[in-house]
């Protein structure tokens, strides 16, 4: 029975391990662009822009409507007229005009012949599509940046776990040595207690790191749009440190953030032109055709023998509307539109300065991170060498336990500092790639 349970548990473990997904940075970003709600909503906005364009275009097409009515008049209005018209001068005739039942059906057409606001809207349609396309690109870049930064953070936390596990193993070996010495009367109990406390502290630190890894992985999966319960693994080769290309300052006007503002300015100009169109006259063609039935009975199925008569009529005409005075309302709207344009232009100036600052800061951070990595790598080498020598001296009785513990702490700290330096570099690298407008290269 126990053997069956063991086999069952092993099969569960194999199935769980089989579900672990190894993710390169490219795969993580690609997954996010396909599954994260922000990216999906941005694509939906691009799709919706086509429908908005169709809505604008519809104003330039004929507008056709149908109508139908059925009216019952229980009391017909009478009109008092002079009897002279009916050969009875000096008398007054009270006559009722109309029928108890009236039914009608018709169709109407309206076609704009000249409407400046419609023409302006048609010109703005292409810019509207391009605005949402650029906005979609900006959203994708934001998704890429968040995923990349969290991806690298998960790696650093896992490296810290690997270091703490290595430290625990090495400290455990020292504890076994001291335990043997203590059993043989060659070590003090306080030394054994100190190493036991050291192991306990390392175990506590390990649990804290495990918690941090779980939180960081959850954040990464959230930014990817991946189910939180998914198991992921990150290959180490993704974190090789290579010197980033520090070129001349990129053309800020090619950055997505700036292009979006530029396109927004274009749309505001069209909006102003649309308001200015309020000064222009409008001309439209109208036409209608109707069929009318009247009689003392419901006309729908009645005939002339029932006193119900049907007739048709139609009309074709032009409607000209000329704005003369609007109480300065149009002028106020034009000035408001102009203020919006000037305000956006100030935002564009500020954005150019901000993007230039981002690039300068990213290059500075890259250079500093490379120096820090070299320094920390050397510190780590020296700390490892000191620890090895101190451990040998301790075994030979030439160094105290305090010296050994201090050397272990220094070595662990040096290795942690090195992994943090790598994280700082990779985050700075993402910032540099972003400042050059090349985030999409991370998925090529």
Bulk shape: elongated
Low-confidence stretches: 1-18
Helix content: 55-70%
How large is the radius of gyration?
A: 41 Å
Instruction: Indicate the mean pLDDT.
Output: 87
Description of the structure:
- There is one protein chain.
- Residues 1-18 have low confidence and may be disordered.
- α3 (37-58) packs antiparallel against α4, α6 packs antiparallel against α7 and α7 (329-395) runs antiparallel to α8.
- This protein has a 4-stranded antiparallel sheet with strand order 2-5-7-8. It has a two-stranded parallel sheet with strand order 1-6.
- It has a single domain (22-59, 115-281, 327-443), classed as Outer membrane efflux proteins (OEP), CATH 1.20.1600.
- It has 8 helices and 8 strands; from the N terminus they run αβααββββααβαββαα.
- The protein starts with a helix and ends in a 9-residue tail after the last helix.
- The chain has 444 residues and is of the alpha+beta class.
Topology:
Elements: H1 2-18, E1 21-22, H2 25-35, H3 37-58, E2 63-72, E3 78-82, E4 92-96, E5 101-114, H4 116-183, H5 189-224, E6 232-233, H6 256-276, E7 282-295, E8 309-321, H7 329-395, H8 401-435
Parallel strand pairs: 1-6
Antiparallel strand pairs: 2-5, 3-4, 5-7, 7-8
Helix pairs in contact: 2-4, 3-4, 4-5, 4-6, 4-8, 6-7, 7-8
